[in-house]
Amino acid sequence: MLSFTKIKVLSIYLILLSAIFFASLNLKNNNLIDKKVNLGLDLQGGSYILLEIDTNPLINQKLQSKVLPIKKLLYVNKINFKDFTISPDNISLTIDKEKQNKFKNLFFKQQENTVNNFIPEYNKFELNLEFSQNKAFIQFSNFGLVSLNNTALKQSIEIIRRRIDDVGTKDPTILQRGDKRILVELPGIDDPERVKELLGKTAQLTFRLVSKDDGFGSEKLILSENNEELTVNKRVVISGDNLVDAQPQFDNESNQPIVRFTLDRLGAQRFGKITTENVGSRLAIVLDNSVISAPQIREAITGGTGTISGGFSFQESTDLALLLRSGALPAPINIVEERTVGPDLGQDSIDAGVFSLIVGFILVIIFMFIKYRIFGLVSNISLIANLFMMVGILTILEATLTLPGIAGIILTVGMAVDSNVLIYERIKEELKTEKLIIHAFDTGYNKAKITVIDANVTTLIAAVILFIFGSGPVKGFAVTLGVGIITTLFSAYFIARHLTSVIVLNDKEGKYFKL
Amino acid sequence: MNNKINFSKIFKVANIFSLLAVLVSILFLFFKGLNYGVDFKGGTLLEIRIENKNIQIQDIRSSLNLPELGDVNVKQFGKEGDFLIKFEKNANENEKFTTDLKNIISKKIGSAVNFRRVESVGPKVSSELLKQGLTAIVLSLAAMLFYIWIRFEWQFSLGAIMALIHDVIITLGIFSILSFEVNLSIVAAVLTIVGYSMNDTVVIFDRIRENLLKYSKISTNEISDISINETLSRTVITSLTTLFALVSIFILGGEILRGFSFAMILGVLIGTYSSIFVASPVLNYFKVTQKTLSKEEI
Q1: Beta-carbon separation of B246 and A364 below 8 A
Q2: Which one, of B147, B42, B53, lies nearest residue A454 by Cα?
Q3: Exposure check for chain B: N or C terminus, fewer CB within 10 A?
Q4: What does the alpha-carbon distance between residue A316 and residue A308 come to, in Å, rounded to a whole number?
Q5: Mutate to test the interface with A, among B140, B244, B246, B275 (most CBs of A within 10 A)
Q6: Domains of chain B with CATH codes
Q7: pTM given for the model
């Protein structure tokens, strides 16, 4: 175990040198290789926000949109029906038993089906149809729900990305988590509250006429400026989908912050037509079920642009413009988890972590030197090499260092000497029976090998499971712990062993062997 | 080794002690339960730093005694002027909850308030995190069991796993007795304890197996004794160096790591104890002898 070929020695130190090189990349910025250990949000400050989409309103909305096509299908094919009712998650109607099969065939037709979409990727239809006596029930199939959910989630991620990019945060992370959640990480953010408000808003914008009587097809909404209750027609004149741009501006006359919007061609046409026909009426501008403003239409607006004023502050008008530009979320979004760390706490954590690392390190080094003298020194050198390699590998992986991650490094320092201790204690035992010192070292390394591997594999198992199940900072701990085990094995069995062999082979008189 | 300690003589006493400790722990876990932090219970946690050092903890408590805030818990956190405030409510009910909270605190306290940390976890996420944590612990135990079973005989595997369960239950039991707050980082600590204790046990088991092959005439307990003594200095040294590192985190690593390092210190002590006094006696109970070892190893 103590003989090393030249190539082996060379490659051991080449690996160590390259690890030191990668570790040194963290010291200053360079343009050559852009690799660094990233600091986690708990160390550099920032926000971690977990959002969850609520698809229930969307399901209801989509079901509503099926009503007309279904009725049309029934009329065109002369299928009589009655008691057509919609509940939040299904549609029910009464159809004569003789006609039920015909309806079923039409409902599950693969080609040119405008009612029930066929989802090729699952080979299934989006809606289910069930009969019970003369009642028919229509609801989303599981595959329909999954497809609806996935589309909504993808759209939401896209819109959230646009909103965050628009705010101008550096290096945001936006990821899908599971099938209903979106993870947003915003490092070094100063004002998480503003971003949170921007993320949580559905931003469903509609322009609707204010009606005089509260009959069928209208609803009561509150004007947010003065809490006036308005009766607003449910029919949408134009919606946020028709917007191509929105910018915050100051009104020429009142000097108030306003939002100027530009409509697409179709929206401009409709807007022109409605404003021409309804001069004198009030037009409600509705955002997420609350009326921002309801100005009177003084003249036809045919240019395809308009303004929204609602007593905004400049920040509010900027945010509204941003929300309108990025588009509406397909479904409401809730914040289910939020973690924010201020930048000064992050710095404090780094300072405390690094300080305790240094102290722990020095304690271990002193102890090992007192206990094993020259071989303690060998173990200490390999411990330092171990630290460099850890940082080097974390750099190559561009891993994220968190506060528990620093704890993982400190813990590795404490546990790394274990391998050397195991080996040295074994050699000590061997020295009692073995006359030849070189043989004692050789068998010591050999016999301890299995134990060292067994002992480290168990810790590695814990680290892997932590990595799989841990979230955020805890994952950082798992990474440093896992990397630490690998570098520990390397430094004990290559670096420390080589240094030991150099000492043993050069020391013919055996003056160092008082382990 | 000259200073041979007769461990097996106190195996019985130690085992009765361990059994009692496990029993008491289970009773505490069952009746008192664990003091879950925001991660596992849901709610909101704020860490604030107040510039005006004259403001006392009572002032913050009384200023936050508002019906709309629900149950509030304030405590000093590290330095003077640093406080940790916990609310049962979370952002899930109202996305502006933390924003409003910050405004209320700033207004009520008057002095400049620095919000150093905000954590808000909804009930759904917290119960998922708890489930994930438990799954992780159970899975790691299973993985360890499997690994030892492959590397050794089933008796060893059983001994190791009993030691691990012993460690986890007693550690959690002590958390329960001390009303120690359990959060995500504690799960990480428990998992590391599992790894560490296993590590210790494996070293002793390796030696027991080796000695079983070497001596065929003496009893299992005697072999355990020899093996534990042979590996004792290693056990002590490694525990010491690990404790050096952990105590240094505990004292100097800041408030956030304090709970984590405390759990680890506890775990290292219990883990070291269990590899000697729980894992090894189990081999004797199962009458492990040279014949137990499978042919390939001999």
Answers
A1: no
A2: B147
A3: C
A4: 12
A5: B244
A6: 7-37+125-297 (1.20.1640.10), 43-121 (3.30.70.100)
A7: 0.84
Q: How many Å lie between the alpha carbon of B7 and the closest alpha carbon of chain A?
A: 20
Q: Locate B39 and state its tokens.
A: 């991660």
Q: How far is A235 from chain B (nearest CA, A)?
A: 30
Q: Do A454 and B102 touch (CB under 8 A)?
A: no
Q: What is the mean pLDDT of residues A288-317?
A: 85
Chain A residue closest in CA terms to B243: A414
Asked whether this complex has an ipTM greater than 0.95, the answer is no
Residue contact A417–B230, C-beta within 8 A:
no
- The strand pairing partners of A232, in sequence order, are A210, A219
- Strand order across the beta sheet in which A173-177 lies: A173-177, A181-187, A46-53, A333-341, B113-121, B43-50, B82-87, B72-76
Q: Do residues B150 and B156 lie in contact, with contact meaning Cβ atoms separated by under 8 Å?
A: no
Inter-residue contact B21 to B277 (CB < 8 Å) = no
* Rg, C-alpha atoms of chain B: 24
Q: Which two tokens stand for residue A309?
A: 């004023």
- Strand spans (E) along B211-261: none
Topology of A6-44+342-506 in CATH?
Answer: Multidrug efflux transporter AcrB transmembrane fold (1.20.1640)
Please tell me the CATH code under which domain A206-315 is placed: 3.30.1360.200
Instruction: Check if A229 contacts B (Cβ < 8 Å).
Output: no
- Burial (CB count <10 Å: 0-12, 13-18, 19+), residue A35: middle
CB contacts under 8 A, A 142-181 vs B, are none
Q: Which among A334, A339, A407 has CB closest to B257?
A: A407
Length of chain B equals 298
| Residues of chain A found within 8 Å of residue B264, distances taken between Cβ atoms | 411
Interface contact flag, B231 A425, Cβ < 8 Å: yes
Residue from the list B122, B237, B252 with its beta carbon closest to the beta carbon of A421: B237
Please say if the pLDDT value at position B298 is more than 70. no
> Where exactly are the structural domains of chain A?
6-44+342-506, 56-146, 206-315
CB A458 within 8 A of CB B144: yes
Interface test with B, best of A184, A199, A344, A356 (most B CBs within 10 A): A356
A351-365, A480-494, A495-509, B261-275: least confident range: A495-509
Burial environment of residue A162 by CB neighbours within 10 A (0 to 12, 13 to 18, 19 or more): middle
Which range has highest mean pLDDT (A23-37, A402-416, B225-239)?
B225-239
Straight-line distance from the first to the last Cα atom of chain A, in angstroms, rounded to the nearest whole number: 19
Nearest to A414 among B119, B230, B246 (CB): B246
Could you tell me if A195 and A189 are in contact, meaning their C-beta atoms sit under 8 angstroms apart?
Answer: yes
Return the sign of the alpha-carbon dihedral for residues B152, B154, B160, B164: positive
Q: Does A320 touch chain B (CB under 8 A)?
A: no
Compare CB distances from B234 to A421, A458, A462 and report the shortest one's residue: A421
Cβ–Cβ of A470/B185 closer than 8 Å?
no
Provide the 3-class DSSP secondary structure of residue A380: helix
